Amino acid sequence: MHESPSESLFVNNRIDASVTFSFKGNTLSPRVTLELDRFLEKEGKLPDLYLLLAQENGIGLYSYEYEMLQAYPIEFANAEGLAADFLDGASFDAEGFITAWKRGKLVRILAEVAERHMQVADLEAQPALRDALLEAYEMGLQAPRDESGA
User: Fold this and answer.
1) Is the pLDDT of residue 149 over 80?
2) CA separation for the pair 61, 100 (Å, rounded)
């Protein structure tokens, strides 16, 4: 059974990314472990993975080795937390993960509001209320803004 998105936020979401390619007769496999929560908390998105693989593995960004690295697909493995739900073989649905991660973070914030104002101890146990709060939040994002500041 999978964790709910809000529960998974309390777990380290990480995944290994690697590329295997040949360069000057050698097989190279640069690898990096991505601390997904750190990137999403700081930047709201994942970094350029080829760039990160090169930087973390001593590959020059203006080298033929870097060009060869970019010519091969990134493979993923060893996903933990919510990220595991978005790993399919060696493919990672980063967009799906980011959407679920952001929704889980929002649900956690809404759970705090529900507890503070409505004494709801477990928002996940009340999916209709959770969905109503999410819908109200999304409607608020789409509502026209009053430019006068009133």
Assistant:
1) no
2) 32
Take residue 82 and report the two structure tokens written for it. Answer: 């919510």
The sign of the CA dihedral 31, 40, 81, 1 is negative
Model confidence pTM above 0.85: no
CA dihedral sign, ordered 50, 56, 60, 62: positive
CA angle (38 as vertex; 34, 44 as ends), nearest 5: 105
End-to-end distance of the chain based on CA atoms, in angstroms? 48
Whole-angstrom Cα distance, residue 36 to residue 13? Answer: 5
DSSP secondary structure code for residue 124 in this structure: G
Query: At residue 4, does pLDDT exceed 90?
Result: no
Beta bridge partners of 14: 35, 80
Q: Which residues pair with 23 in a beta bridge?
A: 26
